[in-house]
Amino acid sequence: MKAVVVEEAGGPEVLQIRQMPRPEPRPGWVLIRVRAFGLNRSEMFTRQGHSGDAVPFPRVLGIECAGEVVAAPDTELQPGQTVTAVMGGMGRAYDGSYAEYTLVPASQVIPLATHLPWTTLAAIPETYLTAWGSLAAMDTLSGQVLLVRGGTSSLGMAAAVLAKDQGLTVIATTRNEAKAAALRDMGVDWVVIDTGIIQPAIRALVPEGVHAVLELVGTKTLLDSLQCVRPKGIVCYSGILGNEWVLPRFEPFLDIPSTVKLTTFSSETLTAEHAREALQHVVDGVASGRYPVTIDRTFSLEDIVAAHRYMEENQATGKLVVVVAP
């Protein structure tokens, strides 16, 4: 089979297309014919070497995919079923979806009833399930105000869509004025241009502070985001678009306003058992037009280097999808 292999950390050019043996089915695992997969920044970070010993090279990256079951011994899945697979060590502890076939633990494989095109289906799992889990982690309620920091990322857009569907007022940020219209078109109530310090602008819109912040930029903006929240509000840290992993200085008594809560959500916690109902709900919503899927661009597997370069340059508004041709 054709696969994309990373043998050492580096720039996009370290992604090499190779011929590899097709994985052999084994009990409790599912062999999937990959039809398409979404790109994720965590894959970029791994390729750059930031995952350290947690991801040994050589490795086939890819933490999600959409495709068809080829074989699934000792599971309830049947050959030919439409499935998605997500996380659970995929593309990290074992080879992932940047290939024509991938072998994944059944615990991470979600069967779906859908006729969505492969490109659309592949854009949904990691993005929408992370958005779903992040909102659940903050216990958001209808009538509340949510700030999505990093709004033009695929995750930010999905979170805004779900939040509006829940009845929340949504403020979303972007660093690029040209991308503001895309957020308004999705139903975002207010767009704030992110200069790195947005607390004054947020307080001008909501003097008492927002109820919740979905922090997707990361440590670069976390301290400022904490200042945007009202007492007993919450910040959920779910992304690192800013490419900085740690805070150089953190003093909780000074940096976290009194009674404000700080939590995180990681898609590493996703399993088929807990995510199947939510994902089917989203997929049905996409099919009916209730939930949009914003795909910025699609690439072929052969163009994986260009796809990673495009992702690394932060050019996208929405999801990037790679199609694996038969």
Give the arrangement of secondary structure elements.
Blueprint: E1 2-6, E2 15-19, E3 29-38, H1 41-48, E4 64-71, E5 82-86, E6 101-105, E7 109-111, H2 118-122, H3 125-137, E8 145-149, H4 154-165, E9 169-174, H5 180-185, E10 190-193, H6 199-205, E11 210-215, H7 222-226, E12 229-237, H8 252-255, E13 261-264, H9 272-288, E14 295-300, H10 304-312, E15 319-323
Parallel strand pairs: 8-9, 8-11, 9-10, 11-12, 12-13, 14-15
Antiparallel strand pairs: 1-2, 3-4, 3-6, 3-15, 4-5, 5-7
Helix pairs in contact: 3-4, 3-9
Task: Give the structure's gist in a few sentences.
By secondary structure, the chain is of the alpha/beta class.
Descriptive keywords:
326 residues; alpha/beta; Quinone Oxidoreductase, Chain A, domain 1; Rossmann fold; 2 domains; 7-stranded mixed β-sheet; 6-stranded parallel β-sheet; 10 helices; 26% strand; globular
Overall number of strands: 15
Please summarize the sheet with the most strands.
7 strands, mixed
Q: What's the tally of helices? A: 10
CATH superfamily of the largest domain: Medium-chain alcohol dehydrogenases, catalytic domain
Q: Class by helix and strand content?
A: alpha/beta
Q: In total, how many domains does the architecture comprise?
A: 2
Structure report:
- With 326 residues, the chain is α/β, with parallel strands linked by helices.
- It is built from ten helices and 15 strands.
- Strands 3, 4, 5, 6, 7, 14 and 15 form a seven-stranded mixed sheet that branches.
- α3 (125-137) crosses α4 (154-165) and α3 packs across α9.
- The longest helix is centred in the last third of the chain and has 17 residues, at 272-288.
- 46% of the residues are buried.
